[in-house]
C-alpha cells in the first residue's frame, strides 16, 4: 500500500522584490510552412533537455506563460533548464497581419515546424509544456518524434477532432458571438466569464483589441479543424514519455482531459485536476503548478536535491493510503487537495495519479 503524506500549502510567492526576468533572445527560422518565431531564455545545460513551451489560441508565449515562469518558486527550475518559448506564426508581438487568402498552417504542420527550431538551436531533446492548441501541437510532435521528447506537461488538451455535433454548436455560436468571445469561451470557464474579474477583463481587452486579430482567427480555425490524435491505451499510437495532464475544475476542457487520461499509458501518466484555477491554471495557480512541475521533473530523474519549500515547511504527520488496482498494473494513487490543504506522494514515480488541488 502506498502511503501519502498530507501537507498544508502556505501562501504562494510572487517574483521576489528586485528580481528581474532573465534576459531573452528572440529568433526566427524558416520552415517548409513559413517562418516561426521563438524566444530562448537561459543557456543550455549539459545533458539536460530544453523546456519547450507552446501557447493556446488567443495568446502568445508571454500572455500564456509569463505568470508561471516569472513566479518566485519557478526560479529553481529555470536555473536548471534552458527554455524555448514558441509563438505560433503571426502571434508574436508586432506581427504583421497575413495577407487576404493566406493559408495558415494546420496544427499538424505547426508540429512539423518544431524540428526546424531544434535543428537551428542544436537541441536534441525537450520537455514540452503546452496549453490547449499548444498541448495538441506538442502531442502531435511527440507522436512523430518520440525519441526527442523526454516529457510532456499538457494543460487543457483536447486530442479529439470536432464531431458533427461540435461543428453544429460551433457554427451556431459563431452566428451570435464574435471571434474574441468565442476564444474567451475556449480559454475560460463560464463562471469566470460571468464573474468578470480583473484577469478576465485583462484578457478580454488583450484579445478584443489585438492588432493581429485576423491572424488569431486563422490559428483558431486551424485548431477547430484539428485531426483526432487517435490515442489508444495499449496501442502503438500513444505518448511514450512521462506525461502530466493538467486541467482546472469546471474548465471548458475538463471532460476532454479526463478522456485523454483514460487513453494514455497509466504507468507514464499523471493527472492533475486543480481546484480554484478556472480555465487557465498557469495564470491563476502558478504556485501549485510549479510545485507539481518540480515533482514531475524529479520523477524523470532531474533536480533530485530540489527542496519543496512550500510543502515541506508545512508537512503534517497525517497519513493516508491508496489501494492497488490489480496485480498486473501499477497502483493508481488518488490524491486530493483543496486550496488550503494538499497531499504529497511518497511512492516511486511512474504511477498514474489523479490529483485535485
UniProtKB/TrEMBL annotation:
Tell me the GO BP annotations in alphabetical order: cell differentiation; nervous system development; Wnt signaling pathway
* Start-end of Low complexity biased regions: 333-347
What cellular component terms from Gene Ontology apply here?
A: cytoplasm; growth cone
Where is the major localization of this protein? other
What are the record keywords, sorted? Cytoplasm, Developmental protein, Differentiation, Neurogenesis, Wnt signaling pathway
* Compartments (UniProt record): Cell projection, Growth cone; Cytoplasm
Specify where the region named Disordered lies, as residue ranges. 1-28, 320-357
Q: Which domain of life is it from?
A: Eukaryota
Which purpose does this protein serve, as stated in its record?
A: Contributes to the regulation of the Wnt signaling pathway. Down-regulates CTNNB1-mediated transcriptional activation of target genes, such as CCND1, and may thereby act as tumor suppressor. May be involved in dendritic cell and neuron differentiation.
**Database matches in PANTHER family:** N-MYC DOWNSTREAM REGULATED
The family classification in the record reads: Belongs to the NDRG family.
Q: What is this protein called?
A: Protein NDRG2
Amino acid at each position: 500500500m502506498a502511503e501519502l503524506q498530507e501537507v498544508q500549502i502556505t501562501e504562494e510567492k510572487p517574483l521576489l522584490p528586485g528580481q528581474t526576468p532573465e534576459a531573452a533572445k528572440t529568433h526566427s527560422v524558416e520552415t517548409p510552412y513559413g517562418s516561426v518565431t521563438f524566444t530562448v531564455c537561459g543557456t543550455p545545460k549539459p545533458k539536460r533537455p530544453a523546456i519547450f513551451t507552446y501557447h493556446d489560441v488567443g495568446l502568445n508565449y508571454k500572455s500564456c506563460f509569463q505568470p508561471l515562469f516569472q513566479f518566485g518558486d519557478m526560479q529553481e527550475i529555470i536555473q536548471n533548464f534552458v527554455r524555448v518559448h514558441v509563438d505560433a506564426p503571426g502571434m508574436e508581438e508586432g506581427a504583421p497581419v497575413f495577407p487576404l487568402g493566406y493559408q495558415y498552417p494546420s496544427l499538424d504542420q505547426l508540429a512539423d515546424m518544431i524540428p526546424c527550431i531544434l535543428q537551428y538551436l542544436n537541441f536534441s531533446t525537450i520537455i514540452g509544456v503546452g496549453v490547449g492548441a499548444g498541448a495538441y501541437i506538442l502531442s502531435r510532435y511527440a507522436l512523430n518524434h518520440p525519441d526527442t521528447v523526454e516529457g510532456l506537461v499538457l494543460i487543457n488538451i483536447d486530442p479529439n477532432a470536432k464531431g458533427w455535433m461540435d461543428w453544429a454548436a460551433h457554427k451556431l455560436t459563431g452566428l451570435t458571438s464574435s471571434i474574441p468571445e468565442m476564444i474567451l469561451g475556449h480559454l475560460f470557464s463560464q463562471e469566470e466569464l460571468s464573474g468578470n474579474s480583473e484577469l478576465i477583463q485583462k484578457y478580454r481587452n488583450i484579445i478584443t483589441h489585438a492588432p493581429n486579430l485576423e491572424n488569431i482567427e486563422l490559428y483558431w480555425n486551424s485548431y477547430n479543424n484539428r485531426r483526432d490524435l487517435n490515442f489508444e491505451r495499449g496501442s502503438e499510437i500513444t505518448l511514450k514519455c512521462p506525461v502530466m495532464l493538467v486541467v482546472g475544475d469546471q474548465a471548458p476542457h475538463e471532460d476532454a482531459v479526463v478522456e485523454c487520461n483514460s487513453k494514455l499509458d497509466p504507468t507514464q501518466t499523471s493527472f492533475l485536476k486543480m481546484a480554484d484555477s478556472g480555465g487557465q491554471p498557469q495564470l491563476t495557480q502558478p504556485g501549485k503548478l510549479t510545485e507539481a512541475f518540480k515533482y514531475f521533473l524529479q520523477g524523470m530523474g532531474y533536480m533530485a536535491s530540489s527542496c519543496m519549500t512550500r510543502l515541506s515547511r508545512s508537512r503534517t504527520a497525517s497519513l493516508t493510503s491508496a489501494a492497488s488496482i490489480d496485480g498486473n498494473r501499477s497502483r493508481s494513487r488518488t490524491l486530493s487537495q483543496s486550496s488550503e490543504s494538499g497531499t504529497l506522494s511518497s511512492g516511486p514515480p511512474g504511477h498514474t495519479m489523479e490529483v485535485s488541488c
